Automatic annotation (TrEMBL):
The gene is sigJ_2. This is ECF RNA polymerase sigma factor SigJ. One of its GO terms (biological process) is DNA-templated transcription initiation. InterPro entries: ECF_Sigma-70_Domain, NTF2-like_dom_sf, RNA_pol_sigma-70_ECF, RNA_pol_sigma70_r2, RNA_pol_sigma70_r4_t2, RNA_pol_sigma_r2, RNA_pol_sigma_r3/r4-like, WH-like_DNA-bd_sf. It comes from Actinomadura rubteroloni. PANTHER family: ECF RNA POLYMERASE SIGMA FACTOR SIGJ, SIGMA 19 FACTOR. One of its GO terms (molecular function) is sigma factor activity.
Length: 289
């Protein structure tokens, strides 16, 4: 019996990065993804494993279905969230694709757009775009027909493509982030306006736990003035550590050695479209693993 459980644990450990990658892309929350993966493990422990022909497929299916259930209830909680809700940042320096075949559905720009999809659409999109699952397999996982699975993916793709601007290159996004941090620290209004898109938006996620803007700040001039207004107070004693989270460059901001903000930008061309300030203490742990 112990040997059987050890074998089950070994199988689970091998596939765990993939399971976390599925759950995180589904939920945008590392904490919730970890809970889903743990629930999948408990099911695997107690299931009749001798009847499972493909353990990886079984675990991926269980994880996806659990994530769909969690996402349905999470949406209600996020509607009542204090201020803008942003995806929880996850360090990807050691695993650029976060357990997937491709780095799709991982960057903040796309994760924010995926919040507008139904849980089933999101599952189908994630499984197809990030994990390259065939449509018959997707259909089985989300309990629908192959034709319906294709429609789910198609609708999700159209939504993402219609709303998302062509992203800047990795190098350009990093350059713009560096320039933004430099200008923000200095409170340099002209430099800020120069790198912000005309319709740039700044989102601050404090979750009601820390002081942060409860409403998005819209427009290059307003964002620049907003950032300059708190420059003296915000940046005093701050050490900046550069990192890769969600497949893109980010600045980990620490004061007295304690991480208090993950700052990144979404960009297209040579301008910043979105500034993301992730400040909720409960959502910072996975960014510096």
């Amino acid at each position: 019996m112990a040997d059987d459980l050890d074998a089950a644990a070994a199988v689970f450990a091998d596939v765990r990065p993939r399971l976390f990658g599925i759950a995180y892309r589904m939920l945008g929350s590392a904490a919730e993804a970890e809970d889903v993966v743990q629930d999948a493990w408990l099911r695997w422990q107690t299931y009749d494993r001798a009847a499972v022909a493909d353990p990886v497929a079984f675990l991926a299916t269980a994880t996806t279905r659990l994530a769909i259930n969690v996402l349905q209830s999470a949406r209600v909680r996020r509607e009542a969230y204090t201020g803008p809700w942003l995806p929880e940042p996850v360090a990807t320096g050691d695993d650029p694709h976060l357990g997937a075949e491709r780095g799709e559905a991982l960057g903040f720009a796309v994760l924010i757009l995926l919040e507008r999809l139904s849980p089933t659409e999101r599952a189908a999109y994630v499984l197809r775009e990030a994990f390259d699952y065939p449509y018959p397999r997707i259909a089985e996982i989300v309990r629908t027909s192959e034709a319906a699975a294709r429609q789910l993916v198609s609708r999700a793709r159209k939504h993402v493509r219609s709303e998302r601007r062509a992203p800047a290159t990795v190098a350009e996004q990093r350059r713009l982030l560096t320039a933004f941090v430099t200008a923000a620290r200095a409170g340099d209004l002209a430099a800020l306006e120069k790198i912000l898109a005309t319709d740039a938006v700044s989102y601050s996620d404090g979750g009601g736990a820390v002081r942060a803007s409860r409403f998005p700040v819209v427009g290059a001039a307003r964002v620049a003035k907003y950032v300059r207004a708190f420059a003296d107070r915000f940046w005093t004693g701050v050490a900046v550590e550069w990192a890769t989270v969600n497949g893109q460059a980010a600045a980990l901001l620490r004061r007295d050695g304690e991480l208090f903000t993950v700052l990144t930008v979404n960009a297209s061309g040579d301008r910043v479209d979105q500034v993301l300030w992730m400040m909720n203490p409960a959502k910072l742990t996975a960014a510096s693993r």
